[in-house]
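pasting for the record
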Amino acid sequence: MIQSDNGLYRLEKTDIKHLARVAAEAFRDDPLTVYLLQGDTQKAKRLPIVFEYYAALGIKYGQAYASSPDMEAVSIWFDTPVRISLWQLISCGFPLKNLWCGFNYFQRDMQLNNLCDKMRDQLYPFSNKYLALLAVAPKYRMQGFASKVIRPILAELDRSNVTSYLETQNLQNVNMYRRWGYEEIGQFNLPLSNISLHAMLRKIRKDYHGGNSSSISLQAE
């Protein structure tokens, strides 16, 4: 694990399993996870394996950061448009890890990913830094760790004149992202559910001071 100049930790391949456990714990009771699992609590125990795929994808082909080695909070970012080949997906565990919670979970998850891709194509088909995942371990919630892992990156995006885009299904999170400068630009309903996906865009803000003057590299390797 590499510590950056401003206190964030750049995650490496050796951190994949730890990152997956943190993300699975953070999203275990999320409405979107409940929808994907269709209430199957037994399969919920397999979520860390599924998240190993997304963790590997973020660490290998995006940028993944943690608030500290304990990973109280983690974030995964991609430069968009994302260009990842089928072979690269397979190298991260696709589709075997995605199927760990069953074929129905896999099918709904793929539909969700396709919907998010269409949202981005329609609402903001321009280069930006995509926030693919923000997770805070349950025991560290409401302690400022989300801000700690996000604000320094947003400050660097402003210095680099880069916009940022994300989707969230949680209305409480919409308000949190607004405090960081994101604005809602669209909303899509997830088929056969009462879940809405909120697309949010953060424009460049020269008045934002989210971190210190030290720089953190956000370039894909």
